[in-house]
Specification:
The complex is a heterodimer of chains A (261) and B (284). The N terminus of chain A is likely disordered. Chain A has nine helices and ten strands. With 284 residues, chain B is mostly helical. Chain B has a two-stranded antiparallel ribbon with strand order 1-2. The longest helix of chain B has 32 residues. The chains are: A alpha/beta (261), B mainly alpha (284). At the A-B interface, α1, α2 and α5 of A face β1, α1, α5 and α12 of B.
């Protein structure tokens, strides 16, 4: 597989994600306002923030779907505004807000995405993935006729088909029942720990973030207002859990929330 | 090659990404995606054939009627049917191209494709192949029925038919590229543009009448469009029995310009969509 090295890293492989002075302005709205962060290989990082905080725009720039107004988003050293096709095969993405074709069966969808990503031994990989994600019974059913939980399993299977080194997840357990949501979290955790994959997770479920994330980057109005481990964040804000921290920040702003626990 | 937590190198699960074979594999994947949709639904297949069949029957019966009352119509047997078949080549091919793209928006799959290793040029190549497949599914049965009902055999046009077909299909791709570029930039609010763009050319391309019929000011516009030469060429072959090669050369030269323009417009709007964020908000 093609690897990108970076002169700034002295010939060492660059970090999976490196964001520098990243900014995105839509007409008169600043969606992302000069953020910086770098993610270590094998880490799970949660991007948190209320609606309009800049999470989706940041993830979109990491995927190269949105071009920054200024600054840069690099993935494995590639500038995603200009060089995204060098690294897209090493990434994947899952979101309940993006579907795979409804009329196609689960098998057909996995086959097509397997071909797009150039997966070796595709038939064997689909069989193994179907077994791992309990899709064997559903494999020849149209995706559009599956339940929400079954669709999520297919989407996660699609996202892991190419064994990505970087996985971007946008609210992966939204609208799932607690049992299925727990199952999805276990799969994500297992995949990340087993493959040393880097995961970026956007979620509004704070319990999920506490369980999965090594690090939390909290955004507000397009800026990073906190960047630490969940435990550090809870301790610094003097709250019982991440949900309380989130609520305090969302309602009063970071500085005030820290002053008055 | 990546590493496991223990530091052991793990073989890549993926093929080499930059070869021509990898590119062909991605294009084939997309062609399969659309083929599975066509195959899964007989109403969709019937829909492909329906309108060309209705058009062919209507013009075929009209021509049969006129042939009984007019010596010109009797002499020009096959002119209307030939024109309607070739016009449908342009329409079906452009719609086949554009609708395949629209399916990605309707099914909310565009985000997955745009962040997969599929390159824009490969996506376009797949849309071109799919438009050809849909065209064949639609037109082959209709051409056979035209032969059976009205004795018009499109293959009797010989090499001229190949030249007509190629020029019309290339023009349809140019229109398809422009229409999907507009939809990429402005979303499904601009969907009707993809459906209707080709019909602007129906009166101007002189499908059923010579260029000289148009007002003088409109004739240069007609002569700047490749399909005009195709339909002039059809009339020359049916009425005079002559294949006028220079008409096809002019059509092809213009098509080179239009395809380049189509790619430029598509590329511009794709980049514009990335700047404006419309790729992640694709919808109404």
């Amino acid at each position: 597989m093609q690897k990108t090295t970076h002169p700034r890293n002295g010939g060492q492989p660059p970090p999976p994600v490196e964001v520098r002075a990243l900014r995105k302005v839509y007409r008169d709205i600043t969606a992302v306002d000069g953020i910086d962060f770098s993610l270590a290989s094998g880490s799970i990082t949660a991007l948190l923030g209320g609606n309009g905080a800049g999470k989706t725009t940041t993830i979109s720039m990491l995927m190269g779907l949105v071009v920054p107004t200024s600054g840069e988003a690099r993935v494995f050293g590639a500038d995603m505004a200009r060089e995204r096709h060098q690294v897209l095969h090493r990434m994947n993405f899952e979101s309940p807000y993006v579907d795979v074709p409804m009329r196609l069966t689960v098998r057909q969808n996995l086959e097509i995405f397997g071909r797009l990503y150039g997966v070796r031994d595709l038939k064997g990989r689909i069989t193994a993935t179907s077994e791992e994600f309990r899709l064997t019974e559903l494999i020849d059913r149209p995706y559009g006729k599956l339940s929400a939980g079954q669709k999520t399993r297919v989407s996660i299977a699609k996202a892991l088909l190419n064994e990505p080194e970087l996985l971007l997840l946008d609210e992966p357990t939204a609208s799932l029942d607690p049992d299925t949501a727990d199952w999805v979290r276990s799969k994500i955790e297992h995949y990340c720990r087993g493959r040393a994959a880097t995961i970026v997770l956007a979620s509004h479920n704070m319990a999920e973030v506490e369980r999965l994330a090594d690090r939390v980057i909290m955004l507000e109005k397009g800026r990073v207002i906190a960047d630490e481990t969940p435990a550090e964040l809870i301790s610094r804000f003097g709250r019982a859990n991440l949900e309380e921290v989130f609520l305090a920040i969302a309602r009063r702003g970071a500085d005030e929330a820290q002053r008055s626990p | 090659m990546s590493e496991t937590l223990s530091g052991t190198p793990r073989p890549s699960p993926l093929r080499e990404q930059t070869t021509l074979a990898a590119s062909a594999g991605r294009i084939w994947g997309m062609v399969l995606r659309y083929w599975y949709v066509i195959r899964s639904s007989w109403p969709r297949t019937a829909e492909l054939i329906y309108w060309p069949l209705v058009q062919m029957l209507m013009w075929g019966f009209l021509q049969s009627y006129l042939a009984q009352t007019s010596s010109f119509a009797a002499k020009a047997a096959g002119l209307f049917i030939g024109a309607v078949l070739l016009w449908d080549v342009l329409v079906r091919s452009q719609l086949g191209f554009s609708v395949a793209f629209l399916e990605e928006i309707w099914s909310r799959n565009l985000g997955h494709l745009m962040m997969s290793p599929l390159r824009p040029a490969e996506f376009v190549a797949a849309l071109m192949l799919v438009s050809l497949i849909k065209l064949l599914v639609a037109m082959v049965p209709v051409a056979v029925l035209a032969h059976l009902f009205f004795g018009f055999n499109v293959l009797s046009l010989g090499i001229a038919f190949a030249a007509f077909f190629a020029n019309l299909v290339i023009m349809s791709w140019s229109l398809g590229l422009i229409s999907i570029g507009v939809v990429l930039r402005w979303g499904l609010g601009a969907e009707s543009f993809a459906w209707l763009i080709v019909f602007v050319f129906l009166p101007i391309c002189c499908v059923y009448y010579p260029v000289a019929t148009l007002p003088a000011w409109l004739q240069p516009v007609a002569l700047a469009l490749p399909p005009t030469y195709v339909f002039e060429g059809l009339r020359a072959i049916v009425l005079e029995g002559a294949f006028v090669g220079h008409l096809m050369v002019k059509a092809f030269a213009l098509n080179v310009v239009y395809v380049a323009l189509g790619f430029a417009v598509f590329g511009y709007f794709l980049q514009s969509a990335r700047v404006h964020g419309s790729l992640v908000q694709m919808g109404e």
